[in-house]
Amino acid sequence: MEDDDTIARELAWRWERRRWALTRAASLAQARPLLASAGRFDLLLLDLGLPDGDGLNLLAELRERDPQTAVLVLTARDQVSDRVLGLKQGADDYLVKPFAVEELEARVEVLMRRRQADQTLRLSLGALSWVESERLATVHGSPLELSPREFEVLGLLLRRAPRLAPKGFLVDEMARTSRDVDDSVLEVYISRLRKKLTGSGLAIRTMRGFGYVLERETERRAE
Fold it and tell me: CATH class for domain 124-222?
């Protein structure tokens, strides 16, 4: 998010040449609907001085539902207390204006590498946390009792959330470690996971003929 047209145009020009997909919002009102779905963006470049409010408010809202999207704050606020506040609100990095574009790009690349490394280890949605290296899934901090296959399917659903996880994709991924997998076997694991996620605030929705979506129950009721 950047309300300065000159800065926004220069960054867009440079980054489109690098084939980075960009979406710009010049205000809080424009940004909120874009950020409504957790995990839609890999990184948020956030200016704090926006025409309709403080970017820190948006950051706080984002972190309530999305702890994973990397956030790099750009601002003219150069006091240590401002930087500390931004980091406490959930920013991953903080760059004071004026800045060198080369430094900004270097920081973006570091955040993206860190995010990609973290994604292989930990995924989360709402109250649910899934840690691959520890073979552990928790809801509100309490461990879920999952079989190895249930843990695997839950991780696959989380990797796609809040997007559709096609049935063929799930079956193919499970078949990497076992040949005894088909649609009916997958449905058994989905049914078990639904029961174990009861009370978590999450639900697995069946998209008939397509696959499954792991989503927040509040999002499902809003449809």
Answer: mainly alpha
Angle at 152 between CA 151 and CA 154, to 5 degrees: 65
Helix-strand-coil percent breakdown of the chain, rounded to 5? 45, 20, 35
User: pLDDT tens for residues 144-173?
Assistant: 999 988 999 999 999 888 889 999 889 888
| Range 117-140 average pLDDT | 83
* The model scores a pTM over 0.85: no
| Domain 5-119 fold | Rossmann fold (3.40.50)
Nearest to 42 by CA among 108, 99, 125, 86: 108
By the 8 A CB rule, do 132 and 121 touch?
yes
The set of residues, in sequence order, having a beta carbon less than 8 Å from that of 40 and lying 6+ positions away, is: 34, 69
Q: What 8-state DSSP symbol labels residue 200?
A: T
